[in-house]
Q: What sequence folds into this?
């Protein structure tokens, strides 16, 4: 059953978060949403596709995980600016034959995450899709004027930090793509199916003026760090032993280093900060690892425990795993 | 050739409007765009799909018209709130084999329209599409606090007005769908291929506190007026003779009344206003027609010159022409 615009609006009206309603004087069911920003704040806007066959597969990803990941992508971008989310907008095109239960569970996943961060889904667009499920999420957030943490502020001598652990998503996808597994479990790969955006850590860094630059690891550590380096006109030396590798299953097997280095969709925060004051080892309950240093030389390098140095290519998530999903 | 994210960013950096740059402290190539709203303004956000096979066909619509219409849909929503556009975001998924020339002309159409209204394309997302061209446009605008013109303000006794002429798009699509024509010309149907959103007229109405409610005619007069009526808890009586029908070609043949009543995608402004002060017959160079009156009875009715009264069903663009594109 296709989801009509009316149905989408009903979905939103009935179940959307009631968190920041006072910031949303009008919107649901009007031509535009009208949103009041907090005083002396600037608007943050980000938009991210979730396309069947590109960002997810119906046989691999349960509908609530698809909805959750769809919104998480946008929220993670807000986190990477040190911002706070206000409202989301969903453009959703569904094939005519998609079961209503899929749609309901998709919304459940998306709205659960929205509630968790006291934000609302307040609008969007709907259409019937000629092929496959197409979602585009827009998140509007805000940040005090002039306080957004950009990619361009890294300086030589700054330390490089990352939250949480890396490589979980890439390992899950590697198992699926290789055909070694037909399915992988949510329990083994929670960060792949239900990534929690690091909004609290991002806000903490901004409020305390701790980060000189920041990005989220949606494309993978090497690619995302190379974005920071490019925008800041610097390079970086990473410490291989310090990269926090995700652990899988009850055996807590660490993922392969290459997945932690190049695999995307972990939605952790990657940031730089001057060596003083020290960054705490945990921020808002999330582990923070010091993984290297920003260099004047505009290269991305990796140093191993035996002092061997390797120059890294930003291999990019696209060239790595995404192509074939 | 697929359009990589890098290419999109280059496109935007090189060619984006330089109109309101001061409002955009950062953004292109960062996790989010950072946008400063004018003082004491609220944000307006709207999002609209343009999907191949649903909203356009490659054999019917030249690429620059697809780009133009894509942005026009969003701008028209901003106009319908009495708002001013600031920036646009484009999520664009393209099939691997799409010629680069198509992409260039698409951007040309979109950016020409952006320049016309001194606004910038400042971000978005890109992906490779498994099937067909998928675009989702987000427009961020603003309006002085509390001044947005909503759908819910129509009162019994208010007059109903519409800008421009109606039915051009529906007539073009009828000729194409029926197979009577393989192509229709831009000259005959400028409002179908290159609709100019009524931003100036919308601002004028808001600045002068003239409209009690407003919507744009994206879904067709009957459907859009029924949205106003539903949100306002009222009905309307339209005057058949007063509906401004578009004229086609050198012969200036008026379109069929049913296309003017039910056909969508004309992107005119439909608004209500108290009978005093009088609404001028032209606003910012655009014709304005008085087409009926808001009634207490919650019905949509049409009165003919012979006083015959017909109850209208909001037939909806979806059920009318869109289904099969």
A:
């Amino acid at each position: 059953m296709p989801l009509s615009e009316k149905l989408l609006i009903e979905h939103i009206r009935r179940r959307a978060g009631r968190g920041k309603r006072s910031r949303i004087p009008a919107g649901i069911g009007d031509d535009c949403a009208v949103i009041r920003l907090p005083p002396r704040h600037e608007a943050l806007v980000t938009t991210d596709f979730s396309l069947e066959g590109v960002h997810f597969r119906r046989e691999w990803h349960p509908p609530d995980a698809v909805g959750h990941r769809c919104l998480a992508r946008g929220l993670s971008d807000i986190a990477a600016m040190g911002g706070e989310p206000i409202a989301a907008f969903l453009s959703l095109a569904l094939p005519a034959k998609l079961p209503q239960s899929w749609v309901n569970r998709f919304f459940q996943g998306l709205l659960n995450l929205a509630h968790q961060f006291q934000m609302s889904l307040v609008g969007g667009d709907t259409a019937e899709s000629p092929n496959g499920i197409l979602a585009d999420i827009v998140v509007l957030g805000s940040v005090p004027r002039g306080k957004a943490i950009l990619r361009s502020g890294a300086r030589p001598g700054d330390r490089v930090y990352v939250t949480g652990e890396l490589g979980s998503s890439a390992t899950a996808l590697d198992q699926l793509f290789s055909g070694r597994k037909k399915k992988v479990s949510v329990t083994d790969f929670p960060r792949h199916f239900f990534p929690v955006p690091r909004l609290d850590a991002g806000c903490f860094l901004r409020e305390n003026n701790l980060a000189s630059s920041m990005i989220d690891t949606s494309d993978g550590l090497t690619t995302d760090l190379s974005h920071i380096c490019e925008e800041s006109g610097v390079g970086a030396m990473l410490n291989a032993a310090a990269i926090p590798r995700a652990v899988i299953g009850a055996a807590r097997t660490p993922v392969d280093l290459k997945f932690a280095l190049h695999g995307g969709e972990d939605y952790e925060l990657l940031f730089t900060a001057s060596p003083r004051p020290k960054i705490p080892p945990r921020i808002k309950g999330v582990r923070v690892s010091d993984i290297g240093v920003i260099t004047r030389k505009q290269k991305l390098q990796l140093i191993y425990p035996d002092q061997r140095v390797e120059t890294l290519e930003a291999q990019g998530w696209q060239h790595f795993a995404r192509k074939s999903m």
Q: What stands out?
A: Chain B touches chain A through 62 residues (CB under 8 Å).
